[in-house]
Amino acid sequence: MVRLLALALGVASFAVPVQANDLVTDYTLDNGMQVVVVEDHRAPVVMHMVWYKAGSADEQPGVSGVAHFLEHLLFKSTDNMESGEFSATVAANGGRDNAFTSYDMTAYHQRVASDRLELMMRMESDRMVNLRLQEHEVATEREVIIEERNQRVENNPGALFREQLSAAQYQNHRYGVPVIGWRHEMEALSLQDARSFYDTFYAPNNAILLVAGDVDPLAVKELAEQYYGVLPANPDLPERARPQEPPQISLRRMTYNDPRVAQPYVTRSYLAPERNPGDQEAAAALTLLAEILGGGQTSVLSQKLQFEQKKVVYAASWYNGTSLDATTFDFVVVPVPGVSLQEVEDAMDAVVSEFIETGVDAEQLARIKMQLRASEIYERDNVSSLANRYGRALTAGLTIADIQAWSDILQAVSEEDIIAAAEQVFDKRRSVTGWLMGQEEVTQ
Amino acid sequence: MVRLLALALGVASFAVPVQANDLVTDYTLDNGMQVVVVEDHRAPVVMHMVWYKAGSADEQPGVSGVAHFLEHLLFKSTDNMESGEFSATVAANGGRDNAFTSYDMTAYHQRVASDRLELMMRMESDRMVNLRLQEHEVATEREVIIEERNQRVENNPGALFREQLSAAQYQNHRYGVPVIGWRHEMEALSLQDARSFYDTFYAPNNAILLVAGDVDPLAVKELAEQYYGVLPANPDLPERARPQEPPQISLRRMTYNDPRVAQPYVTRSYLAPERNPGDQEAAAALTLLAEILGGGQTSVLSQKLQFEQKKVVYAASWYNGTSLDATTFDFVVVPVPGVSLQEVEDAMDAVVSEFIETGVDAEQLARIKMQLRASEIYERDNVSSLANRYGRALTAGLTIADIQAWSDILQAVSEEDIIAAAEQVFDKRRSVTGWLMGQEEVTQ
Questions:
Q1: B170/A contact by beta carbon, under 8 A
Q2: For A42-51, A155-164, A203-212, B435-444, which range has the lowest pLDDT when averaged over its residues?
Q3: Which of A16, A151, B172, B221 is the most buried (most CB within 10 A)?
């Protein structure tokens, strides 16, 4: 503990440990439910999370948004709880709860005092199997998710643009369909659709219990067996093999015009490999590549385009390899007034080509590796973000061993690995270039 | 008969009938199977067809190509026939048989002497319910369809290009997935996948029997009842409601480079409405629009781009509204050597804009309507193409009444309807522009 607290004081004060061990214990219940305990005894609180290995990319066609819809409905009634009782009980016990849905997973979590862990397990295990869907609640909650789409997507040109980009990037995989759902399909989501997703995917053998905080792993195990261990596994759980992309062979471009856009910009995404069990090297190289090219003000794109050429107000690249299936490597460049989208796109391409020619700056790479190590250590200070990291990786098909090896794999990436990754991934035949523009520039 | 034969002698010799009646009889068997008989007594032959209302767009995700794969497997063994016996029997009886699969349907047909109709029904009704799928045949036939993909798609840059265009055009609907299947999914197609498609969709209540030729409708009905009427309906036949497109809001472009391309060209497709029961007017206007703009050497695009500007060697537009869900309106322009793809694309756009400004040439419209009427009458002369027209329309959700009304609806389209249709459909936010290029122009 002392070490972690000291590290929190500032980057300058720490010696980078070769391999910091998370205090992680994991085991599997007889019914197939995985349990992961992350100890952190600095405060008498606990984060209790259940992660389902089912997200929007596991939906059937035609019912987009049902994973997220069901997430909302899990706060309604069960055979043992009234609608809203779950969150009210958490709050009455001084805790906070929430849930979130993504392509590969749906997660439910509560942060409470450690002595309330049993109560959380009792309630969470109840709604894993005893959900009582009712027509009037389904109808009401459908309005809620449609309003959520209005707020987050329809009223946000950037979000609409990203939906169009994903649809163009993925030719076969459901990562091309928005997590929140296409509006016309959300409007038709039924009780039966939610029930079908629940019956298929909500079962202990498709879930991960993640408990992080001031707990004893053995005590957690006992409670987990008592509450989750008694639930029946779903013997018909489908194999998690989603439709994959065909080889991508065409360069794609798209333009979205919206009068609400004040600041036009260019994005570029390339289909990119994800982290896979025992095979994370390519993803590690891409992670560093994204940092070097566009991870902040000292990155290659910022330095060249923003400070030297003064063509952009912002330039960035990012990559997140924690994904069950193929992910993307992304760029954005936002031009200064008077510079065209074509000009910044060309300038971005030129900088990336020059980077591949020139190679990686060794000092920059060393600095970035140091920053990555530091941020991992900071993350340990935040048990909730540590738990999230485990949950996301495990639901994306990785193992505890992969998660714990990731830091060293990142550190082992060489300059040559990074250039090789860039050459491999930056193939425009697997890319989509998007222009987000205001109305005045409508192309019709 | 005399009238039809006379008409076949030449366009100049006929008076256009207001409404020519196809000699069509239709009824439905007790098990839900639709029967359509088209009489044509000029020769003692009959075309026997069974059309299933199931095509590639009815497939589950991940098993693309299974509709077509099953079509192949229907020529293998049943409980009563050996593998290959079906076609051998047709041939031994002096007939020819084949089958085809598209997005909305799968059809099996034989052309035989009229007195062999009963034999065809006996065999076709047998394989509707008694297919005996065997592992070794499935494995062999999978190689056959993969080889078919090699021949038709992988060895054909234009076909690869069209696959990429469709994938970019459709953001949610399975019309974006090729009928023959993505190769990586075809390679994994199993006996169980084929069995599942067969069990779901091959049943009399999902099929249309179409008999065209020298037959008596009452005799056909008797035979149909004897062979098809005794088959059980599938009570679990799913409603035919496939995932639909969200509103399309982004202009898309794509480029496919292939060293085998000798002649680069530009295509443009717009998402467009299809013919719907009782609502075929928009599709009729688009049908005429496609003819006027790019239906041949006298079309607007040919006249302007090929003969006046001499920029293209070929220009065309086409539209096929016989589709269960939203279809496309397509253009292609092929530049003369030395003219760039951008230049012909711009020239095409300029011609279309000018056309919308100027309006329809009344004489050209009258000439095209006359040609359409003539080609319908010629089609009557070919009982097989008439039967195909009924089969395609019925499996695309239209009724006999829609099919018979179509000709008059086409004739009633006005100049204003055509311009309104163009203004409605030519919205680049619902379009994909494709450039097919050789290797020398690779953009990377």
A1: no
A2: B435-444
A3: B172
